Amino acid sequence: PSVSQVALRIRPMSVAELAQGARPIAHRLDEQVVVLRDPMEDPDGLPRSSCSREKSYIFDMVFDSSATQETVYRTTTRGLVAGVISGRNATVFAYGPTGCGKTYTMLGTDGEPGVCARSLGELFQAIEDASGDTEYEVSMSYLEIYNEMIRDLLNPSLGCLHLREDAGGTVQVAGITEISATSAEEVLQLLARGNRQRTQEPTAANPTSSRSHAVLQVTVRQRHRGGGLRRGRLFMIDLAGSERAAQTQNRGQRMKEGAHINRSLLALGNCIKALSHRASTKYINYRDSKLTRLLKDSLGGNSRTVMIAHISPASTAFEESRSTLAYAHRAKSIRTT
Fold first, then answer.
1. Domain ranges of the chain
2. What is the pTM of this model?
3. Does domain 4-39+52-202+209-332 have CATH number 3.40.50.720?
4. Binding-site entries
5. What is the pLDDT of residues 263-302, one digit of tens each?
6. Helices (H), 30-114
7. Binding residues for ATP
């Protein structure tokens, strides 16, 4: 059985946080341990060993603000690429509150590309290096789930799309645009085109808050001469930011979006929790949200799953950080079969 991996990334303090007089309260102790201190407990800011509200969390890997994009990719995602080429499924999630660096980790910038660009580069390179008696075909689709509706980011004019389950039990998005690709550059251009279609709205917590889950699916089909067909899928998912309405000061439409976002993250959390207590839970409810239905094979099948959780180190983000750490910590105990 493949075991999911959960990493945590602490972003640097932002200009806004420093301007508010926030102090850093989340610290990486070593490669696997992060400590979160309750700012209310310790007004003088001195770490006290007897501090009752200091809690440590253990992950497979903890990155602080000094970790490079390359290090994060190499440690979390690089090992998945070979599996996808040989016909297995893999999923990488970015999870965490709005404004904590999920999109940066997944997409990065031109100068500092993220997980998507790096894994695609490696994928096409590996195909190029593969033996000549195998033919590969790579295709991709890119969608967002916004308010529980599925939109094709490569062709938004299609409107709201629906999930269908085929005879083999694989969940597909009916009518989604699937585009063949021959290079990483091509996929990244398509990705950039799709990102311009993503639903973003300003909230008090983040001026460009992604209000949807973005799901990039890369499918690799390989045909051996005289052999059968194999298919591997790599999902790369930039989840919408978890949030408390108090923090984002959302009203009306933003508030409704927040409720949808939180509900689907809760459904994902419930599936993760059920998977991590396999012995006591016979039934895993994937049907609670579009996100969990779409990821049914990835979460419970022969898939390897990596979650990269994100937090801000600031004292003003304590509540968000605490709930993110608890959620991600639950995910750490998944065992897929």
1. 4-39+52-202+209-332
2. 0.88
3. no
4. 96-103
5. 888 888 888 778 776 666 667 888 889 999 998 877 776 6
6. 69-76, 81-85, 102-106
7. 96-103
